[in-house]
Write a structure and sequence with these properties.
two-stranded antiparallel sheet, 9-stranded mixed sheet, 2 domains, binds S-adenosylmethionine, alpha/beta, Rossmann fold, 306 residues, 10 helices, 19% strand
Length: 306
């Protein structure tokens, strides 16, 4: 449908389109497919019972087009069993099938903590008050190998105040109650702290050019957009400038827009003509997407991750 300096966006069913992408041509597949939600979004969601069967053909194509040391980052939200305060196991079943049937390796699971999530389902959380707010989504980092290309020094976070003080003052060798030996080298400035596998970010895009222009032009804003921080973190962690990032469920093409900003080539596939057409707004903007490089977790996590 459109091209930019570094990318191309295809309006197509991604199962059909991925078939024409070459074997081993992609460094990172970063995506969020429709989840198995009981209350379906406007773009349609597969049912919990059919979800694994629905997704596996996409997963086989993703594995084929990935480079042998590339990565597949999959964001899936949890779901509730209809009519009961009971969690669905669909995403765990999916993960097992991706590893056991498709042959992916689980490199690490991440959690996206969105403090702005609304309490739901209302019946169990707000009315009967027998469950709490569900504020995390799963992100499975998979690869055809257990050793995909990755470098956490590209996603370091700002040191906490405590860590800055330790770096300034230095520390003596001590043994923690846990038995861990903390050596003076712990307090050497390595440019930032190693991030944890918890990514804290809300969907704070409310004032972006894409949202403002969509509203001004009377267009529909995509109902389930990535915050820029999610693709930013994984693109920097798992790829280098010039590498290829592909999103087979591109929606408003946040993945492509962040990839372009970071100098990566990108391929977006989205079957809704309307979403994809409107996603071009992300590239007509002179303000970069709100990529928050600080990924501010709580002080405790910063310290644990240091
Ligand atoms: C959760 S949304 C992705 C949103 C995206 N991460 C963003 O930042 O805007 C999932 C998208 O997948 C699209 N989709 C569903 N099935 C598809 C298919 N078979 N091929 C291509 N796109 C599909 C839907 O239209 C929807 O826009």
């Amino acid at each position: 449908m459109y091209r930019t300096a570094l990318g191309r966006a295809h309006c197509a069913d991604s199962l059909e389109h991925m078939a024409v992408e070459a074997d081993g041509s992609v460094d990172l597949v970063m995506t969020s497919p429709p989840y198995a939600l009981h209350f379906k979004k406007e773009y349609g969601n597969a049912d919990q019972a059919d979800y694994v069967d629905w997704f596996l053909p996409f997963a086989h194509e993703i594995k084929r087009i990935l480079k042998p040391d590339g990565s597949f980052v999959l964001n899936v939200g949890g779901a509730w069993t209809p009519g009961a305060p009971e969690r669905s196991l669909y995403h765990f079943r999916l993960l097992l099938a991706l590893c056991d049937q498709v042959g992916f390796h689980l490199c690490q699971e991440f959690f996206w903590y969105n403090p702005a999530k609304l309490p739901a389902p209302a019946e169990w959380v707000n009315v009967r008050r027998v469950r709490v707010k569900d504020s995390v989504e799963y992100i499975f980092w998979l690869s055809p190998t257990a050793h995909p290309r990755a470098d956490n020094s590209r996603v370091l976070q700002a040191y906490s105040k405590d860590m800055e003080r330790l770096i300034r003052r230095g520390i003596k060798e001590t043994k923690r109650p846990s038995g861990h030996l903390v050596k003076p080298s712990f307090a050497v400035d390595k440019g930032g702290s190693i991030p944890p596998n918890l990514i804290e970010c809300g969907n704070n895009e409310s004032n972006s050019f894409y949202i403002r222009e969509s509203k001004r032009l009377g267009k529909k804003v995509h109902p389930a957009r990535f915050p820029a921080e999610l693709p930013r973190f994984f693109i920097e962690f798992l790829t280098q400038p010039g590498d290829v990032v592909l999103d087979p469920f591109a929606g408003s093409n946040m993945t492509g827009s962040v990839a372009e900003q970071l100098g990566r080539k990108w391929v977006a596939i989205e079957r809704s003509e309307e979403y994809l057409r409107d996603s071009q707004l992300r590239f007509q903007d002179n303000e970069p997407a709100a990529v928050d490089k600080s990924n501010k977790p709580s002080q405790k996590l910063l310290f644990r991750g240091a």
